[in-house]
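Bench notes, afternoon.
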Amino acid sequence: MFIPATAFGANDRVLTGHIGVGGMGRGNLGKFLDNAVAVCDVDSKHAENAAKIVLDKKGREVEIFGDYRKLLDRKDIDAVVVSTPDHWHAITTIHACQAGKDVYCEKPLSLTIAEGRKMVEAARANKRIVQTGSMQRSSDNFRRACELVRNGYIGKVHTVHVGLANANDPGKLPADSEAPANLNYDFWLGPAKVRPYNEKRVHYNFRFWWDYSGGQMTNWGAHHIDIAHWGLGKDDSGPLSVHAEQVAYHPEMAHEVPEACRITYDYGDGVKMIVGQGQKDIKMGTRFIGDKGEIYVNRGVFQPSSEEIGAIKLKDSDIHLIDSNNHHQNFLKCMETRELPICDVEVGHRTATACHLGNISCRLQRKIEWDPVAEKINGDDEAAEMTHRAHRAPYVLG
């Protein structure tokens, strides 16, 4: 039982452990029900509910952990699925790679740019497959849109619109209180700074606070900016400058992240990407604008500017992108073949980097210059400091 299942060949069941089994974690667990043998969460109710899902649907018990490091100690587990809040993605993913596990990590890949690069380095150094959960790449409509753009069927692209969702306001903060007995709150905080427990800052609401996430920029930007990069062929690159304007916050600061913004990304090749939240001219999704046509794509939507563009069939000589119709199965397949998955850790890092740069510009409300080769901000020490963050001991990378 202590030999990884993958050692026996492609026909043997891959065994997965699941770190973070709250809302998104339960969703991911549902995609790996045939594989799951262990669940881990700092909230014991989440862990127990997840274990019950496997028992009810598959008639199989799984081991329950409150500390992900003990889950990683199980030698029979081949891969882990990380669905924690964003501030835990890097540490758990890197430790999993070092433990010899492949990783499916939810988007956004990282909390900071520096963390993302360390995650890539850990995956490469330990020869691990790491899939980022930006699952729109595994949908036909997004792939088709990007293939048409990449092959020049809408002409030279000069502008891309990326629309983000509005902030779903968690509501007025109640008074701080004691954490419930089922939640190991110190472990939940992990590498983040210590602050009193508040029910509107934990679990799903983590997304609205800088200590743990980056708002809708990292939530939806990790999807729609990812598609923009795929269509533009920017998976190993990034913008040269980022300029946030029209930035607005909650008037009573019920949360920290922006409620509206308009951010211009300049890629230095005549292409500008404009990311909008709360902008009337930019709707949710990704819109590629070329000198011969347009394509707008969103979940369940493929909308070319003409019937002719929509009817185009790729030639054999055209660029054909990876064709995946199941993001989780693509991960399992790549565990078998050891080929890079459709949203490899490097891809996830570059997308998350664009999101983080947008947030840095929003917070400082000024233009920043970015070197995508050296991966550093030039000429702005304050902005450069925001590309990394110290981890609180003992929750540090080792």
